[in-house]
Structure formats: structure tokens, C-alpha cells
Amino acid sequence: MKISSCLNNTPYRPRKVLGVSRLSFLEFLRFQNPELNEDQILSKMKEQGKDPVEILTEHQRQIACEQNLAAVLRKLDISFRITKRMGDASKCVNWADLVVPIGGDGTFLLASNLIKDNRKPVFGINPNVSGRGNIFALPSKYAVDIESIFEKLYTGKYTLLMRSRIRTIMNGEGLYGRPFHIHEKSRTRGERRDETLVRSTQRKIADSLQPRQRILPWLALNELKISTRCILKRGDKHCSREIQVFMGEFLAARPISFHVQVEEQETFFIRCTGICVCTGSGSRSWYKSMNSQSGETVRSIVEIATGKKLSPEETNELLYKYHRALLYPPEGLQMTYAIREMYHTTRCTKYKCCPDRQRCFKLTVKSRGFDAGLVIDGSISLPFNDGTTASFEIKPEYSLRNIVLS
């Protein structure tokens, strides 16, 4: 991984710190069940097969990390605000000169979406020191020794990783509606049909008065997704850790059609179940899972191509090389798209078929979907229906200034 400098050597003394903390599962349950006390909530979770000790321990770790960060900042005479509400965090982000997400990769992605330029630094602290697959947070040892983080910042013993982010520009109708959060369960449950139709007509009138182009204010650190709403909901536990864009239909059983153009090359018409567009950071997440292969597949292909049967050791070595080749540096200025379950027909010859995976500097996708959506970093979802076009690009000024400690 290439980092902007091996050792920064420039002391950094933040004066105002914004801590963006995740809601623990116990806090979420309290919010959902205000009539129950803590013991009743934990007892209810035990009846549902969940471990109450694990729930309580996770909550205590989260609160302890928040309190430790606050104590260190008071000791260093640094102004700070710690919030669990993204609405409050968005109001404070311009006030702060350092943002500290307190949680896993999902919290880091949500907090990074608040940062609109490449000048405000950010580092993450994950209270779950045994967490697996941690991409963005500092090493787990710093979760229990927060003061040492600021000691290294003060002495310049840190590095800066300028993580690339994807800018999305959309063209079409209805681009300025309220975005749908991927973790919401439903949108219009229990509405009367006539009320829905009236609201739909009002939206159409309002949409007709809006500009037909929108530069989205959210920069994708991991990935963008275009897919069906059911697919997106079904995978939201995993999507929360991604840095990408994904596009597709909201009904899981329905394929979606796209016009895809890479840079200024030929435009392809494809049918698939979605497209994932990722950065170098996102190449370690869902994109990697989408393109992973099994040992059985590798052995079969090699045997068909060469007639040779690979041993288990040879298979594992080849698999390792293949999966490593999927990854590329987080600061790279190219993005990679991957088409999910593309339909191959007789019209798709070896000379005319759209590559199902390709690295590029710019990508343009036109939707032919009926009830499709575009999701940024597994959280923010916008409609992406018939006739709407989205262009994706990466530029240095869109980068995220990520503080890295060894």
C-alpha cells in the first residue's frame, strides 16, 4: 500500500474534535422498547436466542471507549463533541478540525460521508478489539490506549492515506427527493391508496420544477450499488461495511437492464441483477466477495485447459494469487465495476460482450429499471429508474484524509 509519506514528521494538534459514535445494540433495543427496563430487554433477547451477556458486554465496551476518548480530550484541553445522531454530527462537522468515528467500518463510512473535502483528517477507533475484517479503524491496541494516539499525532509519528472516493453525477427526473436509508424497514406501510396517489402527483409536480442534473453531495469511499431493493435490504448487514456504489432493481426476482459506457468507449446494453462500482478501499469488501472463486472451480478450469489435476496445495496457491490480484491501492485514481449475474445470450459474442469486470477512470450507466435504486456505501439509497443516467469518477480533490498509525 502506497501512503502519502512513510512518516509525516509534521506535528498535528487538533483543537476541535467531533466523535461520531455508533448506537450499541442495547441502546437500539431501549429505543425500540421504551416500556421495558434493561433486565426485561435482556430477558426478551434471551428468549429470542440471543446472548444477553454478549449484548451487555458490547454496550459496555462502546460506552467505555466514548468515556475514555472524552477523558483524554479533556486532559489535553481539546474541545470536543461526541454524538450518536448523524443529524447532529452533520451540523458539527464544519466546526471540527478532526473527526473520530467510534465503532466499526460501518460507523467510519457514515462519518466519512459528512466530510466533503480532502482537508479534514479522520481516524477510527473500534471498541470491539476482537472485531474481524476491520478495514478503516486503527489497530485494536489503540482502543484501550487512546492517549497514545494523540501522543503520536503531537510528535508527527503518523502517516496520511488519501483514500479515493467516487463522485456521482445523476441526470434525469426526481433527483431531489428525500434519500431512502437502506436500513429502514418500509416506506409506505398502511397508507390509503388515494393518499398515496395524491402524494405521487404532488411529487411529480415538484420533480418537474427541479433541475434535471444533480451532483450528489455524498462521496462513496467504498462502493456504489445499483440493484433491486429486496437485494439491497437482504444484504444490509454486510453492506454497512462497504465502500461502493451498487445499482439494480428493488424486486429480488427481477433482472435489470442498463446501458453501460466505460470512459468514451462503445456503449453496451446488458441485463443483470446489479452493478457494483468500487474504489481501492472497496476492492477489499463486497467486490472481492462477488469475484471470489472456489477451489473446485479453479481445479476444473485448469484441468479443462491443461489436462493437469492440481493438488490441494497448488489450488490454494493459485486461489491466493487470484484473490490478491483483485485488490488495488486505496489511493488509486481508478474505480472498478463488477456486473452481478450478467445474462449471456446469443447476441453476446466474444467480440461484442461487455466485460463483466473492468478498471476505469470514468463510468456512465443509464438505467432501464422499473423500481431500482442506487446505494452509496451501503447506507444512502436513491431511485435509479428508467431514463436516469449516473456518471462516476474519481479525482484527487474528492479524497478522504485518513490518519494511519502502525
UniProtKB/TrEMBL annotation:
The keyword Kinase applies. SUPFAM superfamilies: NAD kinase/diacylglycerol kinase-like. It comes from the Eukaryota. GO terms for cellular component: mitochondrion. It is an enzyme of class 2 (transferase). Its EC number is 2.7.1.23. The keyword Transferase applies. Keywords: Kinase, Transferase. GO terms for molecular function: NAD+ kinase activity. InterPro entries: ATP-NAD_kinase_N (IPR017438), NAD/diacylglycerol_kinase_sf (IPR016064), NADK (IPR002504). Gene3D superfamilies: Probable inorganic polyphosphate/atp-NAD kinase, domain 1. It holds the Pfam family NAD_kinase. Coiled coil: none annotated. One of its GO terms (biological process) is NADP+ biosynthetic process. PANTHER family: NAD KINASE 2, MITOCHONDRIAL (PTHR13158:SF5), PTHR13158. Belongs to the NAD kinase family. This is NAD(+) kinase.
